[in-house]
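User: Let's play a game. I give you a shape written as C-alpha cells, and you guess the letters that built it. Ready? Here's round one.
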C-alpha cells in the first residue's frame, strides 16, 4: 500500500479490542445501516481492505456467519488465527476476480489521494462478485467539525487525511458499474466530548457538519454489452 510511509500504525492497531464496542452512536448507526441493506445469507465471503486487527471482520463473522479475509500492510494485528490475514498491497489485491460477496473498508480511503482512491476502488470492485456489496466508511472530510478534528490529529500524529466528497464517490462508482443503494452520515461529533463532561450537550440536528462518519453501500452490477456503450 502507498499510504504515507512515515506514519506507523502499530501502536494504534495493538491497542484495538478484538471486537468493536458498539457503544458509540456512529457504530450503532453503521451496523444498523448494514443490517437494513444486507440481509442474512447475502454474505458468505467478505474482504476488509486495511483491516488492522480484524475486529470488524469478527463482527461480520458473528452477524453473517461468513468466511473472513483481511489485508493490511502492517502485520501488528495478524497474531490471531480466526481470519484469513494477508500482509499485502491494496493496489494489487492477491485475490481472483469476482471472489467476494462483500468488500468492506473503514477509515482507509481518506489516507490516499484522489487518483489513488480510484485505483483502490477499481481493485476492490475487481475482486467483488456481480451483485456483491461494496461498503465504505470514511470520516466526512468536507465542511465539517470532523475535518477540523482529523486535521488537528494530522498535525499532532503525522498521519495524513485527504478530503473525499460524496460526488467523487458517485462518479467513481458510476464508472466502475457499482450502483449506490445507501449513503448517509453516522453518529454525532460532540458525543466523544459529551462523555467527558458533567452535563449533556444538546443535540440540535443531524448533518454533514456534525457527523462522525459517512457510509456508502453499493452493489456491483453485471457489465453487459449495452452498459459498456452507455459509459
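Assistant: Ready! My guess for every position:
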Amino acid at each position: 500500500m502507498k499510504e504515507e510511509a512515515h506514519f506507523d500504525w502499530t501502536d494504534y492497531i495493538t491497542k484495538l479490542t478484538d471486537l468493536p464496542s458498539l457503544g458509540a452512536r456512529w457504530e450503532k448507526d453503521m451496523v444498523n445501516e448494514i443490517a437494513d441493506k444486507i440481509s442474512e445469507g447475502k454474505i458468505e465471503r467478505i474482504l476488509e481492505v486495511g483491516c488492522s486487527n480484524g475486529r470488524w471482520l469478527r463482527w461480520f463473522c458473528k452477524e453473517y456467519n461468513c468466511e473472513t479475509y483481511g489485508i493490511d500492510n502492517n502485520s501488528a494485528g495478524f497474531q490471531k488465527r480466526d481470519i484469513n490475514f494477508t500482509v499485502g498491497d491494496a493496489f494489487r489485491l492477491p485475490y481472483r476476480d469476482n471472489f467476494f460477496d462483500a468488500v468492506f473498508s473503514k477509515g482507509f480511503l481518506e489516507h490516499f489521494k484522489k487518483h489513488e482512491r480510484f485505483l483502490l476502488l477499481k481493485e476492490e470492485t475487481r475482486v467483488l462478485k456481480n451483485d456483491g456489496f461494496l461498503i465504505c466508511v470514511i470520516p466526512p472530510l468536507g465542511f465539517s467539525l470532523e475535518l477540523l478534528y482529523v486535521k488537528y490529529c494530522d498535525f499532532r500524529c503525522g498521519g495524513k487525511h485527504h478530503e473525499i466528497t460524496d460526488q467523487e464517490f458517485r462518479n467513481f462508482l458510476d464508472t466502475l458499474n457499482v450502483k449506490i443503494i445507501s449513503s448517509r452520515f453516522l453518529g454525532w461529533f460532540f458525543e466523544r466530548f459529551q462523555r467527558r463532561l458533567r452535563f449533556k450537550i444538546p443535540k440540535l440536528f443531524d448533518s454533514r457538519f456534525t457527523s462522525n462518519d459517512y457510509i456508502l453501500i453499493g452493489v456491483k452490477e453485471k457489465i453487459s454489452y449495452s452498459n459498456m456503450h452507455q459509459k
